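Sharing a chain and its predicted structure for anyone who wants a worked example. Both blocks are below, sequence first, tokens second.
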Amino acid sequence: MPPRKSSTKEPSFKNRIVGLEYVPAGELSVHPKNWRLHPERQRSALMAAFETIGVADAVLAYRSDRNGGALTLIDGHLRRDMLDQDVPVLVTDLGDEEADLLLASHDVITTMAHRDETALAALLDDIDMGIPRDLLIAIDPDLPGSEVEQAEKTVDGEDVRYPIVPEYDEGYDSVIIFATREADWGWLMKELDLPTVQDRRRIGISHVLTVEQFRQWLFSRSS
């Protein structure tokens, strides 16, 4: 197959990727403002991906002025910690403030995507090579009919699929609804038209509906 010719059309947006380098993982600097925490479950899933597929993605970095020009990570901190080898690094020409903004938004934008549960189930059914258990749990722990769903359903006879347990104090007046699937959550947001509340003490956003707001919403639906 002949090499693909580059487009002569002017790009709409500036390309900030300036190169691909292979760098020993331990030589990559951790971003001092990295906010991501990596639980053991994520580590297990990533290790399963490494063992089954290998390294098939590049980490993202830039040369930081405030870090003495060191190649500093924006995305890929967990891979840096887990790999003892050269890793592919997409190097950008971002400045420190631009890198901070990308650090804050990179994973958040990715997780905004909704899931097509039917398409996901079909995709998993088509994978003949076998999916490691830790990786399947990460992809969809509640996949209907899956062995993982059955295995993760109970521990010592108790249901552990829904580990979020709210704690209330006296006088609470809010309605709290938990969704176990991202598609269900998206539907709730559309139907309830909930206000967004940003809590700086936590990562992410929450949607709060008081009893009075819920009552008004019910009346508006029935009228």
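Comments welcome. The CA atoms of residues 195 and 220 lie 16 Å apart.
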